[in-house]
């Protein structure tokens, strides 16, 4: 149930402008006219499901383990966001195979994508852990609406409204910080006035490019939508499988991407991508982001990197509530999830 009402496309929360609740553009303007290539690779995730992890793994597979690209290019540039297309230079001139990342729901993908059918790796994660990770992330990322208490955030998460809405400037900030840096240098580095002084500009941009507003919607819609995309060329994998056996996961992805890797390369890639090693990579751990945007003292971006951390956070009542909602929502889904 995603409808886009052009009469009231935006609403405000705490001075920030968001797209109208319970609405979702069918084919966001930002994706219109993207020329997909058959050999493009698209990584799709719901937020907090292992996005940045994939931005490490896939480039390493394509380079057959050569770490230069992950050591020198920030994750948002080596695997750019479709959402931020307006801010990426020379997308069309990038050499094949291009790798993109997106949080868009399946029903928001443009017709070009449906026709060309580029390869997709869809990554899923136990929604209880997605929730836990998202709660911590919302506390540290200043550009997101404050999550409120855990219970409040849980209601919003299950409801699928209110938390996942991001606007174009947030995305530009998150993923194109260096670009913003040049134009907004003074503002960003002035923690006193920085973020607040940007709101007028923010509002301005939103007015003129409400076209680029995006939403990601509920976890349940997201996963069900992408699982229903049977005609596309999709590999499904979960965060939990990657935790359980990263070598096997890398091998499977390499096969899907037609990139033969010997066991030594696979071992090398796996070693680079395990949590404790990847966490040290400045180009991947978001430490390049100013603390006014992401305060890693509140919670690190690469926070715990485990499966099942929800058990340390959800109360028994919350977990039960979650289970009941999950059962109802997923009753018709045939896919077998590792966490079930
Ligand atoms: P936690 O908050 O549970 O630690 P995304 O990149 O989609 O925003 O997801 C972030 C989550 O993926 C965080 O989860 C982060 O720690 C985890 N993550 C990132 N890199 C990882 C890695 N190499 N191994 C395990 N988990 C990783």
UniProtKB/TrEMBL annotation:
Residues in Sulfotransferase domain copies: 38-333
Top-rank taxon, per record: Eukaryota
Residue intervals passing through the bilayer: 168-189, 201-220
UniProt protein name: Sulfotransferase
The enzyme's E.C. designation: 2.8.2.-
InterPro entries: P-loop_NTPase, Sulfotransferase_dom
Gene3D superfamilies recorded: P-loop containing nucleotide triphosphate hydrolases (3.40.50.300)
Keywords associated with the record: Membrane, Transferase, Transmembrane, Transmembrane helix
Recorded family membership: Belongs to the sulfotransferase 1 family.
Pfam families listed in its UniProt record: Sulfotransfer_1 (PF00685)
GO molecular function, one term: sulfotransferase activity
């Amino acid at each position: 149930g995603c409808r886009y009402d052009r009469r009231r496309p935006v609403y405000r929360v705490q001075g920030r402008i968001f797209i109208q609740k319970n609405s979702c553009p069918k084919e966001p303007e930002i994706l219109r006219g993207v020329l997909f290539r058959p050999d493009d690779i698209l990584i799709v995730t719901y937020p907090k499901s292992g996005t940045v992890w994939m931005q490490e793994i896939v480039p390493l597979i394509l380079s057959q383990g050569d770490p230069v690209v992950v050591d020198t290019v920030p994750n948002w540039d080596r695997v750019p966001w479709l959402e931020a297309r307006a801010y990426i230079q020379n997308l069309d001139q990038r050499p094949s195979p291009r790798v993109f990342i997106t949080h868009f729901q399946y029903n928001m993908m443009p017709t070009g994508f449906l026709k060309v059918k580029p390869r997709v790796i869809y990554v899923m994660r136990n929604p209880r852990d997605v929730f836990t990770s998202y709660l911590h992330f919302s506390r540290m990322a200043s550009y997101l609406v404050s999550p409120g208490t855990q219970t409040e955030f849980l209601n919003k998460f299950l409801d699928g409204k209110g938390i996942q809405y991001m606007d174009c400037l947030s995305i530009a900030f998150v993923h194109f910080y260096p670009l913003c840096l040049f134009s907004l240098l003074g503002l960003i580095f002035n923690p006193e006035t920085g973020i607040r002084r940007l709101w007028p500009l923010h509002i301005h941009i939103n007015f003129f490019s409400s076209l680029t507003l995006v939403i990601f919607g509920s976890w349940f819609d997201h996963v069900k939508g992408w699982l229903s995309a049977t005609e596309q060329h999709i590999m499904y994998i979960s965060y939990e499988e990657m935790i359980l056996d990263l070598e096997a996961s890398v091998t499977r992805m390499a096969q899907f991407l037609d990139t033969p890797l010997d066991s030594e390369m696979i071992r090398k890639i796996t070693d680079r991508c395990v949590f404790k090693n990847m966490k040290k990579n400045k180009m991947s751990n978001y430490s390049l982001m100013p603390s006014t945007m992401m305060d890693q003292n509140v919670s690190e971006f690469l926070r715990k990197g485990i499966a099942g951390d929800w058990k340390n956070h959800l109360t028994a009542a919350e977990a039960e509530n979650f289970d009941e909602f999950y059962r109802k929502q997923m009753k018709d889904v045939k896919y077998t999830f590792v966490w079930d």
